[in-house]
Amino acid sequence: MTFKERYKRFKAWQLDPFDWSYDENERHHCVNCGYDFAGKFCPHCSQKAGLKKVSWKSVLQSTAEVWGMGNRSLLYSLWQLIWRPGYFISDYINGKRQVSFPPVKMLVLMGVLSVLIDKLFGSHEVKAFQGGTSYGDQFFAWLESSPGWGWLVMTGFFMIPTWCLFRYAPRNTRHTLPQGFFITVFMAIQVLIVDDLADFFGDYFYIMLPLCYFYVYRQLFGYDYWGNFWRVAITLGSGFLLAALALSITDLMTATPKSYADEFIAIKELTFYSVVPILVGMFISKKTFDFREKNKQTLFQFLKMKFQAIKQRIKQRKKQNNHEE
Ligand SMILES: [Zn+2]
After folding, report:
1. What mean pLDDT is predicted for residues 176-195?
2. Residue 37 dihedral angles phi and psi, to the nearest 5°
3. Is the pTM higher than 0.85?
């Protein structure tokens, strides 16, 4: 198989890795409820077709069931989350829920696993936070002990920016906030994995975090390269500022600052620099969306077409001139 064929097959797998076909003529008799059917599962009681008496294989299978089975296994879901993350998340939020291990459960299990890995191999320098009594410091201490939930909170700050900036995306247009929640959960899992890998490879590995977002959102929302780039950049930037804003507000409410005036100025600036880019980005997105809807093409395609039309006209005029001479 040539490289090109391999790549084509990989692309096809990325878009749809599942094979739901079955032989219509192959009949099964359900051992559980006695129903006769064709297909991989009993439509009456949902037991798997072709199950026999309990054997050693069943022992293995029911043990493995803790981590999910087949399409829904934790490992296969993680595998998909690495190689086709955007399409995978898109499948899930559009109702193909049988394709994934339950995402919140996956996040929590990965969190537990990550604490274990950290205990076993991690360089155990517990970061000392100055003071250590404010809510912010307590939050970071909590983040160390339960990274699953912690990263969910952290990535949660990208949920609203994502919802605003990718409302008018070509794919998953007008995604709802509950869908946004599951996008956030899947992103938290990715961030958690990057965080764990950074323990092994060193801190420079955190460069993978923004790259993850670029990669996933491109598949999930279907903007072209640059359209995706600036929207993700604003999402991440504003998300961080919103997190900083939340921290300074909780600090302000729980501790007495040196100067209230300074704190208020900081809060005002954080609000301004996080909200304005989102609103501007949203406005541009809405405009390009309207254009796309009206013309059924992107602005870039439209300009390219215009340019080609002009080129064509110049060519024709040259031909005419040649004839006249
Ligand atoms: Zn049955």
Report:
1. 94
2. -155, 165
3. no
